[in-house]
Amino acid sequence: MTTFLNFEQDGPLVVLTMNQPERRNPLTGNTAVAEFLEAIERIHADRRITCVILTGNGPAFSSGGDIRRMRQQASPEVRETDIRQEYRTGIQRLTLALFNLEVPVIAAVNGPAIGAGLDLCCMCDIRIASEQASFAESFVKLGIIPGDGGAWLLPRVVGLARAAELAFTGDTISARQALDWHLVSQVVPHDDLLPTARELAARITRHPSHALRLTKRLMREAIHARLDSVLELSAVFQAICHKEPDHLEAVDAFLERRAPQFR
Q1: Number of domains in the chain
Q2: Which of 144, 153, 184, 250 lies at a 20 to 30 A Cα distance from 72?
Q3: Are residues 238 and 216 in the same domain?
Q4: Torsion (CA) 213, 217, 218, 220 in degrees, nearest 10
Q5: CATH of residue 9
Q6: pLDDT, tens only, 126-145
Q7: Residue 219 to residue 15: CA distance in whole angstroms
Q8: What's the rounded mean pLDDT across residues 91-116?
Q9: pTM of this structure
């Protein structure tokens, strides 16, 4: 069986590469969801990992849903309740798992990110685009809605008006327009994409694992919590951080004017 997701670990950094280029790296109609879930569990369990880069092999980042599978779902033999359950136990599990992954995730968008492929980008924390990248929330063109959570994810990245324009028109935007709309934070020459993502990852992975993981968890909770709730959670997380040996090492290194040596 062909592996959809390549898992490459280099110390604290993991690079996940979607590897079905002949099909433009679809997220359905294959083993993508199962392999993502397995990789995410592996990352959660390894406290040494402090950053993930997600990219695609071939000309596309991800084409999103498999069109042939959609044709099968339209068959009279397939009930609405079956389709609902397929979403709940399939692509929506990927959405929850990747969005809630404890370590920072950088999407290195190498080519078109279409439909669920765009929403996959929005599940990540940081997005860097190749000049060859493009983006579309294209579900409406197929007479469907973003069943993977895009209606929640995209407005939180680009704002409600921009998200509405993308979702209602299904239009494709270039990497440069994505930068103007704050969908991505950088646009770089195609050959510089992974080196740029790795350089950014190196600036992240130099920090203690516990601080990165708790910072990301706090930011995720802050999306939908009240200020007083976030402050209370911040106090709890900070108490944990103050007792970590890496915190003491960072303080000592600062006072001694040397580079810290974290565990």
Answers
A1: 2
A2: 153
A3: yes
A4: 140
A5: 3.90.226.10
A6: 999 999 999 999 999 999 99
A7: 23
A8: 97
A9: 0.94
pLDDT band, residue 68 (cuts 50/70/90): confident
Measured distance CA(1)–CA(247) in Å, rounded: 45
User: In terms of domains, do 122 and 200 share one?
Assistant: yes
Per-residue pLDDT reduced to its tens digit, 8-43: 999 999 999 999 999 999 999 899 999 999 999 999
Distance between CA 197 and CA 131 in Å, rounded? 14
Judged against a pLDDT cut of 50, whether residue 259 lies above it is answered with yes
Assess whether 103 and 215 both reside in one domain: no
Among residues 164, 183, 205, which one ends one of the domains? 205
Residue 222 C-beta-side C-alpha neighbours within 13 Å:
12
Domain identity same for 143 and 27 = yes
What the block records as the tokens of 30 is: 């294959």
Bridge partners for 16 per DSSP: 7, 54
Query: Do 50 and 100 fall within a single domain?
Result: yes
Residue with the two structure tokens 């590897």? 19
pLDDT of 1 reads 47
CA distances, 173 to each of 1, 29, 114, 178, 216 (Å): 35, 26, 10, 7, 29
